């Protein structure tokens, strides 16, 4: 049986040196993958780096940067695979990441993710590993994922999701009802969280197969060093959590049925208003 195609989307911006390592790691996967590099406005030698890989990758470029959401969206829309992994340009993967994650994917599984190794970019040392609390490799309830996710972030950089679920969840402006935003933060949390409303189970690989780089140029590190940025980051994530809570309430208490009743009432009101306008219009009064 042929394994389903997984597309690895690599959004990038002015990180050509790190990009090489990232692309090499995804091309070294033990399971066949499609690789799409999406470049929004890089002014360094990123185009040359991408060109050196020839037809091993697909390279999408916009000369003007329209923001991180559109960069992700360009890649996901272009993906041919049913499943997508977003791999940020400063991170990289162990060769068996896709193979071992996809071994747990099933029709009732919405997300599969692995442990993450946090690597200091300056020293090359692995400082720590994330998600050890999930225990052994296997499939478990989606609520186990959300117990962790609602208190922090399980980055898309550690996960494989279905393409259609990412497209449904990837808001390219503000998250609905949000008052605060910060450099693309929020939808990265939301795209993984919303999958738990559609599928009852998640998969977890208890090996650090995704390696995240810790360096001064990353958004989270930069925000952690600045109180105002840290506050903006926290607010943006909170907006996504609030929207998720609203959707959870709507699904749990079948508020869609209340919406159906409301729509019927709105339609009746509109029909009544239209009928009254026709009845009392100047043309009708003149004919009387």
Describe this structure in words.
With 288 residues, the protein is an alpha/beta fold. The protein has 2 domains: 246 residues, Spore Coat Polysaccharide Biosynthesis Protein SpsA, Chain A; 34 residues. It has 12 helices and 10 strands. Strands 1, 2, 3, 4, 5, 6, 7, 8, 9 and 10 form a 10-stranded mixed beta sheet that branches. Helix 6 crosses helix 7 and helix 7 runs parallel beside helix 10. The mean pLDDT is 91.
Q: How many β-strand runs?
A: 10
Average pLDDT, all residues: 91
Indicate the CATH class of the largest domain.
Alpha Beta
Gross morphology is globular
The percent range for strand residues is 15-25%
Structural class of the secondary elements?
A: alpha/beta
Number of helices: 12
Q: Main attributes?
A:
Spore Coat Polysaccharide Biosynthesis Protein SpsA, Chain A; 12 helices; alpha/beta; 2 domains; 288 residues; 10-stranded mixed sheet
Topology readout:
Layout: E1 6-12, H1 16-27, E2 33-40, H2 46-51, E3 58-62, H3 68-78, E4 83-86, E5 92-93, H4 97-102, E6 109-120, E7 126-130, E8 138-141, H5 142-149, E9 159-162, H6 163-169, H7 187-193, H8 195-198, E10 201-214, H9 219-224, H10 227-252, H11 255-279, H12 282-287
Parallel strand pairs: 1-2, 1-4, 2-3, 6-10
Antiparallel strand pairs: 4-9, 5-10, 6-7, 6-9, 8-10
Helix pairs in contact: 6-7, 7-10
